[in-house]
Amino acid sequence: MVRESIPLSDALFKVVFFGDGGVGKTTLIKRYLTGVFKSHSEITIGVDFHVKKLEIDGKRVGLQIWDFAGEDRFRFLMPSYVIGASGGIFMFDITRYSSLKNFNDWIEIFKRGYSGTDNQIPVLMVGSKIDLEYKRAVSRNEAYDIARKNSLYGYIECSAKNGQNVEDVFSEIGRLMLKKAGLL
Q: What is the pLDDT of residues 19-59, one digit of tens each?
């Protein structure tokens, strides 16, 4: 009997999360992976790595999720972790304007990692902590305008605490990477 080899994934993509410390990158990733919200996370030292499989438009996609530390002392490491990435997620806290103000620094560091490639990889902007709407310091329009002006591939707001749009963040970056790879 001959057995056909069934691929575990139609595509495997590396996606790098980046942004200031304390914006909720690790909390969002853990919520996505486990479905559980933990209000206190240890700070990420350097980078953390996770794998998740999902289905997008009938395609089996493996995501290698790289959670990059937000503290200044680790930023110099980021370009080497971006090498080989298929996508990125810049995350900021909608209640902390300074976390969006640092966007230009973060995107420049991110771009250094793929500067040798011939085209831009998909990057989403994600505003976190929308469960704290009453503390909002960054308007949706302002964040959207920054994403658009910098040719990012979209803007999504989410809450790791209540789960709002958590799945959407990952399925959207997966869909964008599938399109960029010509698989959708």
A: 998 899 999 999 999 988 876 666 555 566 889 999 999 99
Given a contact cutoff of 8 angstroms between Cβ atoms, the answer to whether 40 and 176 are in contact is no
Could you report the per-residue pLDDT of 108-144, keeping only the tens digit for each? 888 877 765 556 799 999 999 999 999 999 999 999 9
Overall pTM > 0.70: yes
Residue linked to tokens 């999720």? 65
Q: Does residue 89 contact residue 123 with C-beta atoms inside 8 Å?
A: yes
CA pair distance 165, 109, nearest whole angstrom: 27
Query: Buried (b) or exposed (e) across 72-99, using 16+ Cβ within 10 A?
Result: eebeeebbebbeebbbbbbbbbbbbeeb
Q: In the chain, what are the domains?
A: 11-180 (3.40.50.300)
